Amino acid sequence: MTASELDRSADVLLSDGTTVHLRPIRPADAPEIVAMHSRFSDRTRYLRYFSPYPRIPERDLHRFVHVDHHDREAFVVVSGDRILAVGRFDRLGPGATDAEVAFVVEDAHQRRGIGPVLLEHLAEAARQEGITRFVAEVLPANGAMLRVFADFGYQVRREYADGVVHLEFPIAATERTRQVQWEREHRTEARSIARLLAPRGVAVYGASATGQGVGAALLGHLRDGGFAGGVLPVHPAAETVAGLPARPSAVGAGFPVDLAVVAVPPEAALAAVADAGRAGAHGLVVVSAGFAETGPAGAAAQAELIRTAHAAGMRVVGPNCLGIANTDDRVRLNATLAPRLPAAGRVGFFSQSGALGVALLAEADRRGLGLSSFVSAGNRADVSGNDLLQYWQDDPATDVIMLYLESFGNPRKFARLARRIGRTKPVVALASTARTPGAGPLPGPAGPLPGSAGPSPGSAGPLPGSAGVPSEPAGPLPGSLGPGSEPDGPDAPAVTALFARSGVIRVDTVAELFDVGVLLANQPLPAGRRVGIVGNSPALARLAAIACRGHGLAVAEGYPRDVGPLATAHDFADALADAAVDGGVDALVVVFAPPLPGQLVDEDADFTSALASVALAGEKPSVATFLVGRLPASVPAYPSVEEAVRALARVAGYAEWLRQPVGAPPELPGVDRRAAAAAIAEGGPELAGRLLAAYGVPMVPSLAAGSGPAAVAAATRLGFPVAVKAAGAGLRHRLDLGAVRLDLADPAAVRRAYLEISDAFGADVLVQAMVAPGVACVVEMVEDPVFGPVVGFGLGGVATDLLGDRAWRAAPLTDLDAAALIDEPRAAPLLRGHRGAAPVDRAALADLVARIGRLVDEQPRVRALSLNPVLARPDGLAVLHASVRVAEAGVRPDRGPRRL
User: Fold this and answer.
1) Of the four listed, 23, 516, 675, 705, which is most buried by Cβ atoms within 10 Å?
2) pTM (2 d.p.)
């Protein structure tokens, strides 16, 4: 297989949610190309070739299947061993930047979204080969083909001549083409998950006739859960399993088999996958362990399993997973290892962990948190949390999304989806790796033990992680330029803030995941951060007030209100009702301690009813610490005041994010993406300056010198006055260490400065033209393991570096992101004028960080970037120094054509 083929092959989803394989054409494809051509209707042949073209001449066939992958490229779309479509481009002459594009889809597979997928991959391949524009010739009667081009987001120019429509369009990716592509991605991925969660029939592989083992447990849970469709145990010999008729194959089941649940040993899994594919299944749930989690051999077996499934058009949940569930009364699917599902509700729940999944479901049931659907992805070899986000976005049965994540396969996509979906549905995430760059997965269950088919039913035990998640120190960013030269990236609080700015409510423990989930599922969002505290215990009320202030909530004026330990249920209800209609209150925190013995008798239920009636009737969210009786599930109750307030604060932060405007991509004139790409390709010592210049960011010129005379020559060339600085990246701004000399007005001053600096820090120095003084700032970019490229901003100096006083945003930045970024550091008041200083040009700073956000978004080879220092002044700014790291491995999975 050629390098081009390896790079350009992909499994892709079609509009009906099925999978196919797309790859470059091969000479060996000639017989199948002829066979596909023979299946075309006369109309399809005429529309593609402008003539009947009943059979392909040998000369044309040879040209079709032999391409050089540079001037000529062709892709085939394959399902199993059958080619369904072919697309190609041909450069219009040596060195030309235009190419003719064409594709054709077999009649039986038209209107499945194959044309747009081919066009995406052809355009990407053409861009890689220096082609900038496609041309096409289309018959006016070929409305479907004309729509493919028109609906893609390209600016298409049409001309009609000689009975043919001539089309021309640039193929550079734009915001419009990306939006069109993401909309198609959303529809296809959501459709593929919908087919998994609402099957008409399920085949179970691995259920023993004895009723023992994981497969038998899965079969029993499907049957006992009241699944609305057909269930078929697939067994090589038994006629019945668990009272259900069994067959040696799912083919000919007597009902549509849309889903296959696989609980056989790894060595038998491929045979089960192949059988399910022949039966027409849309998807697989592979609970069997023994795959990538066990090492290289298991990873190879897993890759072959996925390849086989995709070739048959199926998506895969797992391997090494707990299963999937759908509580809809029309489906009632429990294809999991959990014997009991929570009640039907409005929460969609995704868990990467298989071993933890049973405990998560049990905890949801204990807390009365109703679920709409549940998916445990295990090794996440195919279906991931991103797929479920796409599905839940439009699912009418889901109002709240909860995620337990152990890693991120496509962090940029997660951030993009979360920003969009969070505007309509809250997303709560416990992300065990989302702390700081360099930190590995947290200790905890990683799934079933190698060699088993999954966790044993009924062995959930206590809820893991409910007492908190231990933290670990963060390691350095891999591949850094060296100490002091590359930013370390966001610390843990900053990562939490990044989640919040993407619309995700990030939590730290499993217990908190449910604390927030229960609140969102049962209460409205607060209109602000003002909290009314009502209770019958002064001590608990004071604790609640302290907790509110600690979590950024404001105790409303006139609160806490203490009704006293002798208050009756009627008094308590009146105080709650007053708080519920108080215009100065956005949310209620209710604290109730049980009456002392002998004070009240049999009135506990009345207090419970009083709280429930206010919580259910009002438009303000209520959380309670109710140390007596049992509240209805619709009233979130917590064992401690701190837990109740913490959950409310998380939700208040999300509500505040919703109230903020969305923002738009900023207008940035003077950006030259081609010049930036050329600079990266050429590299060299001037890379940082050339790269920034391509994005409209000039740097103050500087020259390197290794001796006194060289320093004087450099100063003379730049023009006096100059600055002389130690060349080390961590020293260039260290006035405090004596590594910088400023305002050197003549050669003698330069020689003297060189001697002093070289004696202390080495012979190499930088000589730079002097600029007007300003407030030192730092702009930087790193690759975060959760969000991909993130842009940081802070004020310069040792103190702010030590305190980590940086604000961060995920790229790309909107105009509002850029403006907010420079206002968030704790030292930001220095930019607005402090103790008589003039305010700096904050608009120029916002423009700078916006340009850096655009740069790192559009140039995936840039892995780290630091501008330090940037001097901000009332009349603009000056970038004094920059460092950059590029790498071939910087291709980001959320760019380019769609692929699984």
Assistant:
1) 516
2) 0.86
